[in-house]
Amino acid sequence: MKHVTFGLVAVATVAGLIAFVVPAPSHAEGEPAPFVTEIPHGYRDWQWISSAHEAGSLNSLGAVLGNDVAIKAYREGKLPFPDGTVLAALHYRYVPSDENNKVFGQAQSFVPGAPTNIQFMVKDSTKYAATGGWGFGHFADGKHGDAAFMKSCFPCHEKARATDLVFTRYAP
Amino acid sequence: MKHVTFGLVAVATVAGLIAFVVPAPSHAEGEPAPFVTEIPHGYRDWQWISSAHEAGSLNSLGAVLGNDVAIKAYREGKLPFPDGTVLAALHYRYVPSDENNKVFGQAQSFVPGAPTNIQFMVKDSTKYAATGGWGFGHFADGKHGDAAFMKSCFPCHEKARATDLVFTRYAP
Fold this sequence. Notes:
The structure is a homodimer. Chain A is α+β, with helices and mostly antiparallel strands. Chain A is 22% helix and 29% strand. Chain A has five helices and six strands; from the N terminus they run αββαβαβββαα. Chain A has a six-stranded antiparallel sheet with strand order 1-2-3-4-5-6. Chain A starts with a helix and ends in a 15-residue tail after the last helix. Chains A and B meet through strand 1, strand 2, strand 3, helix 3 and strand 4 of A and strand 1, strand 2, strand 3, helix 3 and strand 4 of B. Strand 1 of chain A pairs antiparallel with strand 4 of chain B, so a sheet runs across the interface.
């Protein structure tokens, strides 16, 4: 079904008839919602939004970075985030730092260990209309999460509706 | 004593006799070592190096950011850090996120709370020769730490001699 819709749009474009074609829905009923399948370019150079420690089974320490559109929106307190916003959550194992603790003389320092995954939220209110305007991405060892796994992102983020599905606050 | 030395250098410079003057030590015996007394401009826009949780009495969650010189040196694995390197450690209280925990259904999420202090390391091997080439800065509520407090930075950082007095590693 999705295939057919895409095909029609392609043919219409080639024929120069695009204006007469009803836009294809970004997410057909019963089809899996689209998600982010490519790592956004240059994310490691983006500015820092905040850090977080997720305890429990995640046992993760990391940071959320944002592209220029994201940083501007955060600083201006602009909600919803505009199209073009991209957020990157870099996760690492939460591990004690033996070398720091030796200096401090006590077990107090926890730092990022091995990278575990990188997650993205890409705002495109057309492409990702079915999931609140956000495309979700999850990459571990360079491979994206499968469709079944990616289905879990939106229902959880949807609970943060008051902040446009984004949990992370900007650290001043 | 320090005053007199500086005065001599100034006179010598004006008279064009600088080549004949022995350079003034950056840190006269018995004088407190210089430290960073002004918040480096634009530090909140710098790139992210890593995050850390310091437990115990510090109870802090934060991030270390670096200026362009710092980021380049880290990525190239360049030690010692070149003059011009500036590192910024942004510290906040380590607090549970009630709103995140409500979504997760368990107490697992810890985020930055109120800002506590910002610390800087500025590399200038001449100005800060007495403290390993690093000027240390500590700011809380916009005010810098006093000389007595600032004396505690170097002896501790000196223990990280293998990494040019810097504890923080670059998170990939």
